[in-house]
Design a protein that fits this description.
This protein is mostly helical and 174 residues long. The protein is built from 7 helices and no strands. 56% of the residues lie in helices and 0% in strands.
Length: 174
């Protein structure tokens, strides 16, 4: 039996979450979903800075938290040991953004994700803890993407029914 190499599938899932699923297949999101980055570009700075009615973090804070997490992973992949001194709580204080800050925050997140996606291809031998961290990076992104969509329901992707109906041949509709 061949061993399972998870890096390729993890990169595929990360890409689907960030950029939306490829036309041919979707594993996490429904077909036609824009993915995280395009969804975020559809938000104004004011919407991104809004605290949910029941409390919690703004979308801007979630985005900064994700950006910071990927920054740490990228530093680690270059040989640093950034986790011992990491300040995970700081992002949750970065609640509000101006228009230019919001644009830069999205671009910074995109850069960190792209760098991480490239770094994942060259990780080499990893300890069990490091492997869990790599897998966790994709799961962590998925968790916050879901949280962001719960905060602003206008960011939701197509439902399964909408995705199916969008892919029907017009002749099949009768």
């Amino acid at each position: 039996m061949a061993s399972f190499d998870a890096v390729g599938p993890l990169i595929n899932i990360l890409s689907e979450l960030v950029d939306g699923p490829p036309v041919a297949s979707a594993y996490v999101l429904n077909a036609g979903d824009a993915g995280l980055l395009k969804s975020l570009h559809g938000l104004s700075a004011k919407e991104a800075s809004t605290i949910p009615p029941n409390g919690g973090a703004s979308i801007a804070a979630h985005v900064d938290h994700l950006r910071y997490g990927f920054e740490l992973l990228n530093r680690w992949s270059r040989g640093e040991e950034p986790f011992a001194t990491a300040d995970y709580a700081a992002s949750w204080d970065r609640i509000a953004v101006s228009n230019s800050e919001w644009t830069e925050r999205i671009h910074s997140l995109a850069r960190e994700i792209e760098t991480w996606r490239d770094s994942m291809k060259n990780l080499g031998d990893l300890t069990a803890t490091e492997q869990n961290g790599v897998v966790g990076s994709v799961v962590h992104l998925a968790y916050h993407f879901g949280a962001i969509r719960q905060i602003n329901r206008g960011l939701r992707g197509p439902s399964a029914r909408e995705a199916i109906e969008a892919n029907l041949d017009p002749e099949q509709l009768g």
